[in-house]
Write a structure and sequence with these properties.
Blueprint lengths: L1 E8 L3 H12 L4 E4 L16 E3 L10 H18 L4 E3 L2 E5 L4 H12 L5 E4 H7 L10 E5 L3 E3 L1 H14 L3 E3 L4 E7 L2 E6 L3 E9 L17 E10 L14 E5 L4 E5 L7 E5 L4 E2 L12 H14 L7 E11 L6 E4 L6 E5 L9 H12 L22
The structure holds flavin-adenine dinucleotide.
């Protein structure tokens, strides 16, 4: 039996960041992952994730996004890796699009640098975008993209450098409170820890059945396309983008890696019975859905398909995260920060989870993410 201050179950985006934060503060910590860091079976693969400060979902996310940006830069300084590329972020949509109005509200409330753009302004400034003439947009210069697989591997490597132990290709089968702590049973051993962080993404329902009725796991398909005009979609000419039409909302990335322009729908995909049901089965219907937005707003990017990949969102009913102590035992910290927009916050959520696991109040405001907002409803 091995004893730790904290055990972290799941080394995806949130777990790897928590492991790093705990190890770098000098705590005895172990991280357990059923696959390898940076794998493609969960919610954190596919080459890129958007980071933006002005937050259409709700202005209260802005302070968290600011802290996340600082913490990504810290990780880059410590590791020497380039995890963040600043391209600016363009949000555009039809009159009344919530992506634009919500982002504008957040920018104004938090005094963030931004430009409001007409359709003609958008094309003048970013010629790869030819949006309908009644659309408007907002550009925020501090937005950009993160490399998720590299970020996760870097968190794990840096945690190990600071003394963290890891168990890869090891599945956690049970988490059981006992008098002095929590026992984590894997397929090979039993680990004891003072507290446990459960950051198992789409698998969180396996360890927190009380959350299951409130979470929906959905299959989201990403497509990479060869642009007809590649020079319009390099990171210096094409920001990361979020586009909202009357019947879809899409996001995407410039061709920063020579793999094409990547884009996907943010609307709810096929609901999966469980996380283990995700398959890499992008099909012509998925491709057609993604192409609709390209045809409408970025016709020069709507070239040959290079590849499709499927990934999972774990959605709450209000699309806000779950970050809280377990109602079963406060020494178990539950983290399900997804709903399709959690990655950018992983760097700061690692800090939050470390505090909660050590019995400290978080210095970041996480009141929006409490489990009790779901009430006792069980369906
Ligand atoms: C297609 C797509 C696009 C997205 N775009 C963006 C974006 O642009 N910007 C943004 O901010 N967010 C975005 N998101 C959301 C973001 O990627 C997620 O919020 C984030 O990656 C979730 O991280 P996680 O740590 O909760 O889950 P994961 O990274 O999936 O980690 C969970 C880990 O737990 C492990 N695990 C599970 N069960 C066990 C077990 N029993 N034993 C051991 N290990 C276990 C899993 O193997 C996995 O590694 C997107 C998500 C998707 C799917």
């Amino acid at each position: 039996m091995t004893t730790f201050d904290v055990a972290v179950v799941g080394l995806g985006a949130m777990g790897s960041a928590a492991l790093f934060n705990l190890a770098s503060q000098g705590h005895r910590v172990v991280g357990i992952e059923q696959f390898e860091p940076g794998h493609d079976k969960g919610s954190s693969h596919g080459e890129s994730r958007i980071i933006r400060l002005s937050y259409f979902e709700h202005p209260s996310y802005v302070p968290l996004a600011r802290r996340a940006l600082e913490k990504w830069r810290d990780l880059e300084r410590l590791s020497g890796e380039t995890i963040l590329t600043v391209t600016g972020a363009l949000e555009a949509g039809y009159p009344g699009a919530s992506i634009v109005s919500g982002s504008l509200e957040a920018a104004r409330q938090h005094d963030l640098t931004h430009d409001v753009l007409s359709a003609a302004d958008i094309t003048r400034r970013f010629p790869g975008f030819k949006v309908p003439s009644d659309w408007t947009g907002l550009f925020q210069p501090e937005g950009g993209l993160l490399r998720p697989e590299l970020a996760i591997r870097t968190f794990v490597q840096q945690a190990e450098r600071h003394g963290a132990e890891t168990r890869m290709n090891t599945r956690v089968l049970g988490i059981e409170p006992f008098g002095a702590g929590i026992r984590v049973r894997t397929d090979t051993e039993v680990i004891e820890a003072g507290s446990v962080i459960v950051a198992t993404g789409a698998w969180i329902g396996d360890f927190a059945p009380e959350l299951k009725p409130h979470l929906k796991i959905t299959r989201q398909v990403l497509g990479w396309f060869s642009p007809f005009e590649p020079s319009l979609f390099t990171p210096d000419r094409c920001p990361v983008f979020l586009l909202e039409s009357e019947d879809d909302a899409c996001y995407g990335f410039p061709d920063f890696a020579g793999t094409g322009v990547k884009t996907a729908s943010h609307r709810e995909g096929l609901v999966l019975p469980s996380a283990g049901d995700l398959a890499q089965d992008g099909n012509p219907e998925d491709e057609a859905q993604i192409r609709r937005m390209l045809a409408l707003a970025m016709p020069d990017a709507n070239g040959p398909l290079r590849q499709m990949r499927a990934c999972m969102y774990t959605r709450t009913p209000d699309d806000d995260f779950v970050i809280d102590l377990s109602p079963v035992d406060p020494r178990i910290v539950l983290a399900s920060p997804c709903s399709g927009h959690g990655f950018k916050f992983a760097s700061v959520i690692g800090e939050v989870l470390a505090d909660l696991a050590l019995g400290r109040a978080s210095t970041n405001d996480i009141s929006r993410f409490q489990i009790r907002r779901f009430g006792s409803r069980s369906a």
